[in-house]
Amino acid sequence: xxxxxxxxxxxxxxxxxxxxxxxxxxxxxxxxxxxxxxxxxxxxxxxxxxxxxxxxxxxxxxxxxxxxxxxxxxxxxxxxxxxxxxxxxxxxxxxxxxxxxxxxxxxxxxxxxxxxxxxxxxxxxxxxxxxxxxxxxxxxxxxxxxxxxxxxxxxxxxxxxxxxxxxxxxxxxxxxxxxxxxxxxxxxxxxxxxxxxxxxxxxxxxxxxxxxxxxxxxxxxxxxxxxxxxxxxxxxxxxxxxxxxxxxxxxxxxxxxxxxxxxxxxxxxxxxxxxxxxxxxxxxxxxxxxxxxxxxxxxxxxxxxxxxxxxxxxxxxxxxxxxxxxxxxxxxxxxxxxxxxxxxxxxxxxxxxxxxxxxxxxxxxxxxxxxxxxxxxxxxxxxxxxxxxxxxxxxxxxxxxxxxxxxxxxxxxxxxxxxxxxxx
Length: 424
Prior knowledge:
The structure is a single chain. The protein is of the alpha/beta class. It folds into 2 domains: 6-48 and 323-420, Aspartate Aminotransferase, domain 1 (Alpha-Beta Complex), CATH 3.90.1150.10; 54-321, Aspartate Aminotransferase, domain 2. It is built from 14 helices and 15 strands. A hairpin with a 3-residue loop joins strand 14 and strand 15. Helix 5 runs parallel beside helix 6 and helix 8 (169-178) runs parallel beside helix 9 (201-210). The two termini are 31 Å apart.
């Protein structure tokens, strides 16, 4: 049972075994010199304090070693991606051989679809959610056009029912079954960016495989947020960014998952590059591509070490905290946020909004999306002026993300108090 009081929130924080992790992050300052109330980790995570030293270390190796840093630095750049592999596998529930960190998210989605969107005959269509993040829509659009198809014919968008904001799993499954003879790829996000809905990845994957299709996922809003089990769920491929819940800096590197059954098969098609060539033969510079076993065989260019160094510093924090522990706290924090917002709606008639994120904790991550009325932007601007960093999405949604690594129950209480004081 929750209570809307500072004492209750502080008591919850005192019992929180993860509370010390908040001190490992740098917070922007409000105009009063105090830390902002940062509830925007679903867009860009905060900077870990250890990121500076991690980056400095690589700059020192560059300074001290020059090109020899590829082999003689503290973390040799030649196989730098390996330092991130085990931690990344922990975050997404994969075997280390199934994971590699490289490039950026949409680049990786294109590379993965080059491998796994292989239309043939009447089986050429892609099923995805309507209103997906624009990068996903653009990537899918260009992929089907590349293969000579028209978007409106080749892409089936599953929409929420009239009057609803989120998709029902049964409707996704029905669409897959109804189009079973023509589907090549089932492609969804893990967590829907706008509504915060967590899709049933396991069930969607099973339905795709039942009709002989490939199942792929964009985990931009899921990695580091929910408890993902990509190997256990038999997902074919997935990719995610590192700068949202994974706190690795703007535009930083992306992670890739390729199921063991695909990534250990050297005949699985991929757009090849030098850095994916078999490591022990790479400098022989020979003709004819021989892939490094596993997801690492999808690498194209050598590692962007500076970005990876920052990402590694964040992954080390996730390793210490434990993704299961973070998910448990996330559920509690988000439940408390929902409780506080409902209490605000009862007490402040100047606020009109609707939570369009599922109320079932198993169907959402660390985010609530608040559908507002004509005064919504006024409310958002008021919160910003009072030191709250949240996220506005057109036309009228405020996204609030209580991130378990650096948000507290008292943060949620403070947000509620500010909203109670809001006046039109």
